[in-house]
């Protein structure tokens, strides 16, 4: 039984909100049941805004595989293309991988600013495996099948190295702890873009395969790469947008578009080679400085 004060307040509340009661009665039963089910969900299964961006990353990776298949591989198998990689479809696939990099860049930023669900880390790893492991490796496989001087089995072996490198890298990232602000090994989005850039450079087959395997090795190496935060995140986003512009110019046959694409791909490869050199040099200098300090320090009593 309710005491008089409680009954009075309950009566006043019901009298003051007849519209709420009527709207609740007007709603279908399945809507009310669905709302109850959502409210009963554990916090670990509720998606956040960052998770939605991560799922966008996965969608872009899958669509990159789709366009590589329908626009490049299928026309080659049916004999309806003029040989080589189809410009439009290849550019679309690479653009989708770049867009996946944008989603991957922003989901971490949003997760730090807002909240991230308990599934965030797992969703991120699975999405990265699709967009930066499967999609670029499949791009390499198709290139090995359609290029005139390529060998399908060798390119497939190089693609396997890329997938394994991304799998091992993501697994290591999940179970190890490193100092804040750096990645251990080349980040998978950067590695995927470098692999694709190597293919787009249209180098001879053997140097291309060697470069792809080298990128795969860098992804599982212990070379430290800075995390894209602050100004570096802005620079990374700007570089992604410039790369999309280069792909668009190449696709639309803009005068100088092919040279622009080659320049962008070459700069990506140069950055992939230079950053490990700087990181290794800095690490060696730090170790030498620590040794000097240890030698100059007075002996402990």
Quick take:
With 301 residues, the protein is mainly α. The protein is 77% helix and 2% strand. It has a single domain (43-252, 261-272), classed as Four Helix Bundle (Hemerythrin (Met), subunit A), CATH 1.20.120.
Give a written overview of the molecule.
The protein has about 300 residues and is mainly alpha-helical. The protein has one domain (about 45-250, about 260-270): Four Helix Bundle (Hemerythrin (Met), subunit A), CATH 1.20.120. The chain is built from 11 helices and 2 strands, in the order αααααααβααβαα.
Features:
CDP-OH_P_trans, transmembrane helix, 301 residues, single chain, disordered N terminus, mainly alpha
The structure class reads mainly alpha
Task: Identify the strand order in the major beta sheet.
Answer: 1-2
Strand content: under 5%
Shape: globular
Percent in helix? over 70%
Distance between the termini: 78 Å
From the 3D coordinates, which CATH architecture would you assign? Answer: Up-down Bundle
CATH topology: Four Helix Bundle (Hemerythrin (Met), subunit A)
DSSP E strands, number: 2
Unreliable parts: 1-24
Tally of contiguous helical segments: 11
Major pleated sheet: 2 strands, antiparallel
List SSEs in N-to-C order. HHHHHHHEHHEHH
Tally the structural domains.
Answer: 1
pLDDT averaged over residues = 81
Our Rg estimate from Cα atoms comes to 26 Å
Question: CATH class, anyone?
Answer: Mainly Alpha
């Amino acid at each position: 039984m309710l005491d008089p004060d409680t009954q009075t307040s309950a009566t006043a509340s019901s009298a003051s909100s007849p519209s709420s009661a009527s709207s609740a009665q007007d709603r279908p039963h399945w809507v009310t049941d669905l709302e109850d089910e959502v409210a009963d969900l554990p916090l670990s299964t509720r998606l956040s805004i960052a998770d939605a961006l991560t799922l966008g990353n996965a969608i872009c990776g899958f669509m990159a595989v789709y366009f590589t298949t329908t626009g490049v591989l299928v026309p080659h198998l049916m004999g309806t293309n003029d040989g080589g990689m189809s410009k439009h479809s290849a550019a679309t696939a690479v653009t989708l991988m770049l867009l996946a990099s944008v989603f991957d860049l922003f989901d971490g930023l949003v997760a730090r600013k807002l909240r991230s669900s308990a599934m965030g880390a797992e969703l991120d790893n699975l999405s990265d495996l699709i967009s930066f492991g499967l999609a670029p490796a499949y791009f390499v496989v198709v290139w090995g099948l359609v290029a005139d001087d390529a060998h399908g089995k060798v390119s497939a072996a190089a693609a396997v190295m890329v997938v394994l490198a991304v799998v091992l890298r993501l697994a290591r990232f999940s179970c190890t702890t490193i100092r804040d602000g750096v990645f251990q090994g080349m980040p998978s989005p950067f590695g995927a873009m470098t692999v694709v850039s190597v293919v787009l450079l249209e180098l001879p087959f053997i140097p291309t395969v060697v470069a792809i395997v080298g990128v795969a090795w860098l992804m599982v190496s212990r070379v430290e790469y800075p995390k894209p935060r602050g100004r570096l995140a802005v620079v990374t986003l700007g570089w992604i947008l410039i790369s999309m512009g280069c792909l668009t110019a190449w696709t639309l046959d803009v005068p100088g578009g092919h040279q622009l694409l080659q320049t962008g791909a070459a700069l990506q490869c140069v950055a992939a080679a230079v950053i490990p050199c700087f990181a290794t040099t800095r690490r060696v200098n730090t170790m030498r400085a620590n040794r000097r300090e240890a030698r100059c320090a007075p002996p402990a009593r």
